[in-house]
């Protein structure tokens, strides 16, 4: 095993993974630098979710290495991997999956409550994140009273409430209308940049990818390119792959 470069928070080498014979990752290598927003852009089914699940320790790749800082994730015992995920990573799904019986702030505070943070402190932290994400006014409501975009912002607050080192966002705005999607994306990226949180963003949408510092493109489980997003380069690179 070769240790990863020092300035990469996440580093993956030669990842291969297939789902019941369907190849999802074919020899993928990449590094994610501390504090950057990296977009993984590709068409539906190109392997983005599988990649994020491998990088975040949810799935152990069938071949290859994943490192978080100087720890090898691919060889970590399951309990240690779970702890790392809980303490250091945040995750946003395409659909907001909230606990219907809990108020919005309790949903946002859930990772803190589950790790034993006292209720009052967990509530204060959750409310701070909800304010940052423009969802503070909904704190006392239950999920069914919230619009889809509001529910997604509660899910974002839940992913950020532990101030993770790395936030993984899998198509976080794919199910929202364009205006709501832009708002959610803006609040997430502002929050991660102001807290120096590293973000890996999977998207099929070239416009969404332009919030990133760097875009890597994917097709049929393979990396097809990289671009720095300082103009329309990233959008163009992403368009080529979708
Ligand atoms: N649990 C599974 N069982 C079988 N095949 C799967 C499974 N998960 C993913 N696949 C297949 O693996 C390939 C990559 O899927 P993956 O979800 O990683 O891609 P994606 O780019 O995230 O797509 P999407 O945007 O639709 O989620 C696809 O061909 C998909 O059909």
Automatic annotation (TrEMBL):
Keywords: ATP-binding, Nucleotide-binding
InterPro entries in alphabetical order: AAA+_ATPase, ABC_transporter-like_ATP-bd, ABC_transpr_LolD-like, P-loop_NTPase
Entry annotated with the keyword ATP-binding: yes
Gene Ontology molecular function, alphabetical: ATP binding; ATP hydrolysis activity; transmembrane transporter activity
Highest taxon of source: Bacteria
Presence of the UniProt keyword Nucleotide-binding in the record: yes
Domain ABC transporter span(s) in chain numbering: 10-242
GO CC list: plasma membrane
Family classification: Belongs to the ABC transporter superfamily.
PANTHER family reported for this sequence: IMPORT ATP-BINDING PROTEIN (PTHR24220), LIPOPROTEIN-RELEASING SYSTEM ATP-BINDING PROTEIN LOLD (PTHR24220:SF689)
Protein name according to UniProt: ATP-binding cassette domain-containing protein
UniProt organism field: Streptomyces genisteinicus
């Amino acid at each position: 095993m070769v240790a990863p470069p020092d300035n990469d928070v996440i580093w993956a080498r030669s990842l291969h993974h297939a789902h019941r014979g369907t190849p999802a990752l074919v020899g993928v290598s990449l590094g994610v630098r501390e504090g950057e927003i990296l977009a993984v852009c590709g068409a539906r089914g190109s392997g983005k979710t599988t990649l994020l699940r491998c990088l975040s320790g949810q799935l152990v790749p069938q071949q290859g290495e994943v490192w978080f800082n100087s720890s090898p994730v691919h060889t970590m015992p399951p309990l240690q991997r779970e702890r790392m995920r809980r303490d250091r990573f945040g995750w946003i799904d395409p659909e907001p999956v909230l606990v219907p019986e809990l108020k919005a702030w309790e949903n946002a505070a859930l990772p803190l409550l589950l790790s034993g943070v006292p209720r009052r402190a967990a509530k204060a932290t959750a409310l701070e994140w909800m304010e940052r994400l423009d969802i503070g006014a909904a704190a006392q409501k239950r999920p069914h009273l919230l619009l889809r975009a509001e529910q997604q912002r509660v899910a974002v607050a839940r992913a950020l409430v532990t101030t993770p080192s790395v936030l993984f966002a899998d198509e976080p705005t794919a199910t929202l209308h364009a205006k709501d999607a832009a708002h959610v994306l803006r609040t997430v990226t502002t929050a991660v940049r102001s807290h120096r949180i590293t973000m890996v963003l999977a998207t099929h949408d070239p416009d969404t990818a332009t919030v990133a510092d760097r875009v890597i493109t994917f097709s049929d489980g393979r990396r097809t390119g990289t671009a720095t997003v300082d103009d329309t380069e990233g959008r163009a690179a992403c368009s080529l792959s979708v």
